[in-house]
Amino acid sequence: MSANAHLSGPAFAHIPPWVLPKLRPMAIEKIQSVFDWVENECIPREHVMEAQLESNQWARPPVMLELRAKAKEQGLFNLFLPHHFKESPGLTHLEYACCAEILGRCYWASETVNSHAPESGNIELLAKFCNDKQKEKWLRPLMEGTASSAYSMTEPDVAASDATNVGIRITKDGDEYVINGRKIYGNCMWNKGLAFYIMMGCSDPENPNPWERHSTVIVPADTPGFTQVRNLNVLGYSWAPEGHGEYTLENVRIPAENVILGPGKGFAIAQGRLGPGRIHHCLRLLGQCERAIELAIMRCNDARFKPRGKLIGEFDSNIERVAQMRLELDAMRQITYNATETLDFYAHDDKMLKSAGKKSIAQAKILVPATVEKIINECMQLWGGQGVTNEHSPMPKLWAYARFVRLADGPDAAHRHQVGRDEMKKAAEITERHKKYNALAASFAEQYGEKIITMPEDSL
Question: Per the database record, which ranges form the Acyl-CoA oxidase/dehydrogenase middle domain (predicted)?
C-alpha cells in the first residue's frame, strides 16, 4: 500500500501534490472531517435552508443553529484562525486552505463552522489587535458562536477602495467618541443576532500623515443614533440573513475603551484584516467553482439531453470547454495555495510578510474572482435555460458571489495597480542586468572573433 494511501480519497483529490507533505496528521484529520461535514450535512440540507430562510429572512434558520451546535461539538469551529494565535485550533494558513476550499462547495457551509465572512476576518482582527479586556468582551462571544459581528469600512460618498478617503468622523469628547456619517455594506442590522460593528472612520483629519488619520472602533448594534436605512440587494439577492446594509450615524457615542489598538491605527488594522479575508474569499470560490464544473460534467453526460442525437459532452467544442475550465481552476488553486504558504513561511518576518504576502494575496484576489465568474458562466451555458434558474441549480448564486467578490475587500483594479506598480519598481535592477548581458556579449564576440554591435540600452 502506498505511504500516501490515507491521502487518496476525494477529500484530498484536488490538493496540489506539493501541499500534501506539509499536512500534519491533525490537519489531515480535520480536512477529512470537513469534507464529510460538507458532503453529508450541508449540501443535502440546501433546500431546507432555503425554505427556512423564506419563512423568516432576517434570522439564522433553525437548521443553521442546529448545524452550528453540532459542528462546535465535533471540534470544527474557528479552524481558520492561524496556529500562531493562542486562541487558534492549531491549523496553518495552508492547512486551513484545504478546508476552506471544501467549505466553498456550499455557499453557507463556512457559517456552520464559524469560519464565514465577515466573522473570520473580524475574529482574526480582534485576536491580533485587541487587549485582553477587549478580547474577553468582544472576541470570546464570536469564537463561542454566541454573537455575530459586522465590518464597516465602505462609504457611499467617497472612493473607499483607497482607505485614506474614508471620511466618517470619529470625534473625541471626554471619555467618549462621537461618530457621525454614512456607511454601506456592513451586515444587516435587521438580523438581531448581530451584536456589534467593527468600524473604520476618520478621527484626526488634520494629521499630515494620511495613513494616521483613521481609527477603528467597536460600535454595538443597538447604540442610539445608529440607524439602518435599508438593505441593499446585490445582483438581485438580499443575501439574507447577513445582508448588505446602508446606515446613518448621528451623534453615536461609544466609550473610549472601544477604540482598537489606539487612535490613528485604523489604516494598519484594515490592512491586517483584509489580507486573510481576501484569501478566504478566494479559497471558497475555488470550492464553488469545482462544484460548478461537476454540475457541468454531469449535464454533459446526462442521456436525457441529446441535441442532434449526441450527448452535450460529445461535441468537441464542449470537451475543449471543460478542459479549459479544468486548466484554469487548477492554475488558480496553485496561486491561491501559494499565497497561504507564503503567509506561513514569512509568519515571523514582518518585512517579507508585508512584501511577499501582499503580492501573493493580490495575485490571488485579481485572478480568482474574475476567472471563477467566467467559468461558472460557462457551466451555466452548458446547462441551457435551467442553468440560470435557482430552482434547478445553485450556479446563479455561485456566479453572483464570484461577481461581487471582485469588489469585496478591494476592487481587482486596485490590486492590479499594486502588483503592476511593484513590478515597475524593478526597472533599474532589470536594466542593469541587461546592460551586463550586453557587455558580456561584446566580450564573447571579441573572444570568438565575431563582429557584433551592442549598445548599453539594447536588450538581448
Answer: 150-252
- Asked whether the beta carbons of 318 and 446 are under 8 A apart, the reply is no
Find all residues with CB under 8 Å of 141, minimum gap 6, and list them.
147, 195
10-residue mean pLDDT profile of the chain (460 residues): values are: 66 96 96 98 96 94 98 97 90 97 97 95 94 97 96 91 90 97 95 96 95 96 97 94 96 98 91 79 96 97 94 96 98 97 88 85 94 97 93 91 90 88 93 86 88 64
pLDDT of residue 454: 64
Q: Give the separation between CA 436 and CA 234, rounded to whole angstroms.
A: 54
Q: Which of 260, 23, 238 has the alpha carbon at shortest distance from 152?
A: 260
Q: Can you list the alpha helix ranges (DSSP code H) found in 56-113?
A: 62-73, 93-103, 109-112
Three-state secondary-structure class, residue 451: coil
Beta strands in 106-213 (DSSP E): 148-152, 169-173, 176-186, 194-202
pLDDT of 340: 96
Rounded distance between C-alpha atoms, residue 451 and residue 445, angstroms: 6
Print the SS3 string covering 236-302: CECCCCCCCEEEEEEEEEEEHHHECCCCCCHHHHHHHHHHHHHHHHHHHHHHHHHHHHHHHHHHHCC
pLDDT for the residue 97 = 97
* Cβ atoms of 30 and 12 closer than 8 Å: no
How confident is the model at residue 274, as a pLDDT? 65
- C-alpha R_g of the chain: 25
C-alpha closest to that of 156 among 236, 73, 248? 248
- Comparing C-alpha atoms, which of 317, 316, 410 is closest to residue 358? 410
Task: Find where cell 456592513 sits.
Answer: 186
Domains and CATH numbers, the chain: 5-144 (1.10.540.10), 148-260 (2.40.110.10), 267-417 (1.20.140.10), 426-460 (no CATH)
The answer to whether residues 405 and 369 touch, using CB atoms and an 8 Å cutoff, is yes
Predicted TM-score (pTM) of the model is 0.92
